[in-house]
From TrEMBL:
Lineage: Eukaryota, Fungi, Dikarya, Ascomycota, Pezizomycotina
Protein name (Swiss-Prot/TrEMBL): Kinase-like domain-containing protein
InterPro entries linked: AGP_Transferase, Aminoglycoside_PTrfase, Kinase-like_dom_sf
Source organism of the structure: Parachaetomium inaequale
Record key words, sorted: Kinase, Transferase
UniProt keyword Transferase, yes or no: yes
SUPFAM superfamilies per record: Protein kinase-like (PK-like)
Record-linked PANTHER family: AMINOGLYCOSIDE PHOSPHOTRANSFERASE DOMAIN-CONTAINING PROTEIN, AMINOGLYCOSIDE PHOSPHOTRANSFERASE-RELATED-RELATED
GO molecular function, one term: kinase activity
Amino acid sequence: MSRSLECKRLCPGNLPRGDDGALATWRDGDDWCILRPSTCRDTSEATYTGPDKDGSTNTVRLVHQLGSSSAVWAVGHEAFFKAKSWSPGLKSEARTIAFVTEHRPQIPVPDVLHEYIDGDRSFSILRRVPGRTLRDSWADLSSSSRDHILATVVDFCVSMAAQTAPCMQSATGGPIDEPYLSPDSPRPFGPLTVQQCAAYFSATSTEAAPDVGAALHFYHADLGPSNIMVSAGAVTGILDWEGTGFFPRFWISTKPSVSPGLNFIRYGF
């Protein structure tokens, strides 16, 4: 999984013990997966994939990649392994998920099995959220289910926006990484006070900068159809919290109009 850790899949007869140095364990069907410090000098052997239930050897499967900055792999059937570029000062997705769990416990989030930093990459292992993405489920949903799901997401957004901070910052008070607000290097940037935000947008915008307001609002900056999990007509989880932070109110309504991932029309909504 990186230079320092390995993940192994164990049959039911080889259940993990409490003294084997495991950093995380989780069930995967009838088997167990165990994460622990690597004992392999050859990093090509650091991850044991084992056979899938259907006979395939692809127990670890790449499911998403964004250039060299981030990637996601499915690990077995019950977990995902996420790798993302990292620099000092950036807060991990796991820290943001913990913040949401503490301050907005009604919002369902992935269970974090383990997180760590290795060099210039952050890594996390998250338990799979049940259901399918709203993007993939939309065509099969009834009108009443669609209305219920959208009303639920609206409630989440309103509740999050009610949480405010005096600075534009990450959920835990660090810099934010929002490329649409930082067209030039360096990134990430901030935290910025309300006054600093006003000066920043005035300096970077070719038009009159929008009013920042008196406070910054908590916002999931990548809340699109592919990051909303649903099952049986209800929301089961919200994914991808890396870009979440406190932003000006105008950005909450502007971001969907500029980000392809938030373009609902392209998905048939």
